[in-house]
Amino acid sequence: AGNAGMPDLSASRQRYMDGHTPADLETHMGQTIKLLTYNIQAGIKTGRYRHYITHSWKHVLPHPQRFSNLDRIARLVKGYDIVGLQELDAGSLRSGYVNLTEYLSDKANMPFWTDQTNRRIGRIASHSLGVLSRFHPAEIVEHRLPGRIPGRGVLLVRYGTHQDSLVTLIVHLALSKRARLSQIDYISEIVNEYRHVVLMGDMNCHSHSHEMDYLIDRTMMREPHHGVDSFPSWRPQHNIDHILVTPTLTVDHVKALDFPLSDHLPIEMQITLPDSVRLDRAA
């Protein structure tokens, strides 16, 4: 039922499978930057399916190991230029009223951070998306995604000026396929407003899913490497964490990192920008 009215996208992926930039979009090479996307599960270490039960209390109550885990994450992310994070807490009971994005920014010595709170459960939990960056943004926009159950969003951070800017979109999509299709439809409208775009996050769908085909069919985005498994972190079998880019961005490499702290593995990507796009690192 969730596919009603959707186009047949069986051929859409092949246009982008080889990862080549179309001739009409070729650009001279410029600055190289390192990206990371990571669902950190609010700093909860998960190493077995049974931990979803035995560690479930950590999703509602504070525990000292959370900050030890976050310190390890901070040491990882300090090696990147732009980091998109999912399943953070913006400051509630379970995090000891500490904003976890701000905490990671401070510990990783990342000069810029911002977050978007999408769902609050009283004083117990405050679910958010976050960005850490070595560049100061020109614009930040918070979008609310459609869905029968509210609480999903897109965090847009734009670096640079006008057409010579890089737009990053951080997402954590719904569990329902119908909701994901609706959310991707909304995201596609945003992507199509810009020329140089990075979309990253926990999308809860695979590279060869109908949802990903729909996104690629509606936009110029591409996923240069498919099947980068990231979930569950202790035995990765599913590729539901993604970094996609527009063809103006040259992808140097993509890989999942062997960093099994959350129930997801982080995904890193190195890209080279067109020479018209210059991002100045903060001092």
Structural account:
The protein is an alpha+beta fold. The chain contains 5 helices and 11 strands. It has helices spanning 51-54, 65-77, 100-108, 177-191, 210-218, and strands spanning 29-39, 82-89, 112-121, 125-133, 139-144, 153-161, 164-172, 197-202, 241-245, 250-256, 267-274. It has a 6-stranded mixed beta sheet with strand order 3-4-2-1-11-10. Strands 5-6-7-8-9 form a 5-stranded mixed beta sheet, with no helix packed on it. The longest helix is centred in the middle third of the chain and has 15 residues, at 177-191. The protein is globular and about 50 Å long. 46% of the residues are buried.
> Using DSSP, what is the number of strands?
11
What is the H-and-E element order?
Answer: EHHEHEEEEEHEHEEE
Structural class: alpha+beta
Instruction: Flag low-confidence runs.
Output: 1-26
Rounded mean pLDDT is 86
Distance between the termini: 52 Å
- Approximate strand percentage: 25-35%
Kindly report the spatial arrangement of strands forming the biggest sheet: 3-4-2-1-11-10
- Seen as an oligomer or otherwise, the chain set is single chain
| Main sheet summary | 6 strands, mixed
Give the % helix: 10-25%
The 3D shape can be described as globular
Radius of gyration: 18 Å
Number of helices: 5
